[in-house]
Amino acid sequence: MSTPATADVVRLYETGGPEVLRVETEDVAEPGHGQVRLRQEALGLNYVDTFFRDGTFPLPVPRVIGVEAAGVVDAVGDGVTEFAVGDRAGYYFSPGAYREYRIIEASQLIPLPDDAAFGVAASILAKGLTAWARLRRVHPVGEGTLAVVTGASGGVGSLLAPWARRLGADVIAVVARPEAVAPLHALGVDDVAVAGTGELQKLVERAGRPVDVAYDQVGQAVIGELIGVLGQGSLLDLLGSASGDAGPSLDAALGAGIRIARSSTGEHLPTRQVLLHATDELFDALRTGVFGDRVPHSYPLEDVVQAHRDIEARAAGPAPILIP
Fold first, then answer.
1. Quick check: 120 and 291 in contact, CB under 8 A?
2. 245-289: per-residue pLDDT in tens?
3. End-to-end CA gap in the chain
4. Rounded CA gap, 109 and 239, in Å?
5. Quick one: pLDDT at residue 1?
6. How far is it, in rounded angstroms, from Cα 149 to Cα 3?
7. CA–CA distance, 218 with 228 (Å, rounded to integer)
């Protein structure tokens, strides 16, 4: 396949709602020293993208957002030895992903196994490595661990909860709506509570032992319930705040002797060796069915505005992607 002179890109020139995203064209550049050009077959959509778009996480504009993608190496710059033209590769956090062709440092790329479809890989790298960091580094789980996972029907939670279960933990998942219960049951997560119903308290009481760790992606809307079931020495891992920051409620948690952790995924992937080990474990979990039949919800790149509207409305499912 020949490389075109221009390709599609999504830029924003101001922060705001989904309508600030503009589909344009750009020249396709050549990779420099240590870089490759990736023909991107699928782009991962993450809720954090909306924070970059609306200014919650301030960035200079004009800007290309998006942090992960999967595709084929199209050209290789000087000094690159790990990748060659035709190799399948992806990345999990490198801002600037919403485009058809990407110049990127080879050191940021992850080799993709042949049995991982591009769409699935683009939908799972950032979310899956976030789950790995929680389960392997923040609070390693195994037999005897009692873990609570909030936002368990979302992108990270739908990976984290069944993966913790497969690793031997007893898992109580928390979801926002009753219709999210059955899909988690299908993934082997039997104990699922709908937030705000009192079910979480009942399931913890039925377990008959303290909660070791709560992985929270929701924040404000569930923090009161979480504090109610965590005891002295329990770990509250704050990895997201989809409903708003927990804020002053954390003072109550600290007063109750609850330990609090807050860290980025990258902090737990300090070297390339660790990153490649983590992705090996992630794709092995995918291959062995831990995450079930993960079918991405695909949007053409030109429909990026609608994709962002759906993400904010929780209507895009746990694995949305853009197809250039």
1. no
2. 877 778 888 888 999 999 999 999 999 999 999 999 999 999 999
3. 15
4. 24
5. 67
6. 44
7. 16
Centre a 10 Å sphere on the Cβ of residue 314 and count the other Cβ atoms it contains: 15
One-letter amino acid for residue 102 of the chain: R
| pLDDT digit string, tens, across residues 199-214 | 999 999 999 999 999 9
Using alpha carbons, list the distances in angstroms from residue 287 to 113, 120, 152, 290, 320. 10, 11, 21, 8, 19
Helix (H/G/I), strand (E/B), else coil: 183:
helix
Amino acid letter, 310: D
Contact predicate 173/196, CB 8 Å: no
Whose tokens are 């936002």? That residue is 151
Residue 196 has pLDDT above 70, yes or no: yes
Query: How far is it, in rounded angstroms, from Cα 123 to Cα 117?
Result: 10
- Identify any residues that bridge with 224 across adjacent strands, giving them in sequence order: none
In the chain, the amino acid numbered 131 is A
pTM for this model (two decimals): 0.94
Chain segment 10-28, per-residue pLDDT in tens = 999 999 999 999 999 999 9
Q: How many CB atoms lie within 10 A of CB 288?
A: 9
Q: Which letter does DSSP use for residue 134 in this model?
A: I
Q: Which residues face 160 on adjacent strands?
A: none
Distance, CA of 64 to CA of 41 (rounded, Å)? 17
Peptide bond into 62 cis (omega under 30): yes
**Closest to 69 measured CA to CA, from 47, 41, 88, 111:** 41
Residue 158 tokens read as: 């739908």
Query: Three-state SS for 299?
Result: strand
The tokens of 66 are what?
């998006």
Distance CA 265, CA 255 (A): 27
Cβ(308)–Cβ(66) below 8 Å: no
Do the beta carbons of residue 94 and residue 108 sit within 8 Å? yes
User: What backbone phi and psi angles, to 5 degrees, belong to 283?
Assistant: -70, -30
